[in-house]
Amino acid sequence: HHMKTRTYKPADRQYRRGQDAKHDGMRGFAMMDVAFGAAILGIVVMGTLQIFSFGQRQITTRIQERSAYDLARMRVEEVIAQGITTAVARTDSNLTVTGEMPATRVTTITWIDDPADSTGAGDMDGPNDFKEVVVNINYGPDGATKTVTLTTVLVP
Predict the structure, then answer these.
(1) In sequence order, what are the residues at sequence separation of 6 or more whose Cβ sits closer than 8 angstroms to the Cβ of residue 96?
(2) Which pLDDT tens digit goes with each residue over 29-46?
(3) Diameter of the chain by CA atoms?
C-alpha cells in the first residue's frame, strides 16, 4: 500500500483559511466567539422572560378586576332584592378579591330628583324620582390601592 501525504504551503487556499495538516480540516470556536454567542443568547432569553412576565401580570390584573366587579354586582343585586325604598348605604370589610387580596366594598345610595318632571316643590310625584347606587370595591395588598366602581340607576 501506498500512503498519500499532503503538504500545505502558505499559498494553498486551505492553509489560508486556518487549516493545517495537524488538525486535518477541523476548526473550533475561539473563546471570544463563545462569549459573544452566550451574551446574545442571554439577551434573547431575558427579553423573552420579560414578555412572559408582563403577560402574566396583565392576566392577574384582569382576574382581580373581574373578581372585584363581581363583588360590586352582588351588592347591586342585594340592593334590588331589598327594595329601592329600604336599601341603605353601607361599608363591608373583610372581603377578598380572588380569595386572597383584602378588599372593602363601599355602597352609596342617593335619591335623584329628575328635572324632566320638575324639581323641588313643583315636582308632582315628589323629589325622589330614582336612586343611584354606586358600589366601590377598593382592593390591593394594603386594602385600597385599586378601585372598581359600578354605578346603577334604579327606578321605583
Answers:
(1) 102, 103
(2) 788 888 989 999 999 999
(3) 125
Task: Write the pLDDT tens digit of every residue in 78-118.
Answer: 999 988 778 888 999 889 998 788 999 999 998 887 777 76
Q: Residue 15 — very low, low, confident or very high, per pLDDT cuts 50/70/90?
A: very low
Place of cell 373578581: 67
pTM: 0.63
Q: What is the identity of the amino acid at 150?
A: L
CB 55 within 8 A of CB 69: no
pLDDT: is 138 or 1 the higher one? 138
Cell of 23: 488538525
* CB-based burial label for 103 (10 Å; 0-12, 13-18, 19+): buried
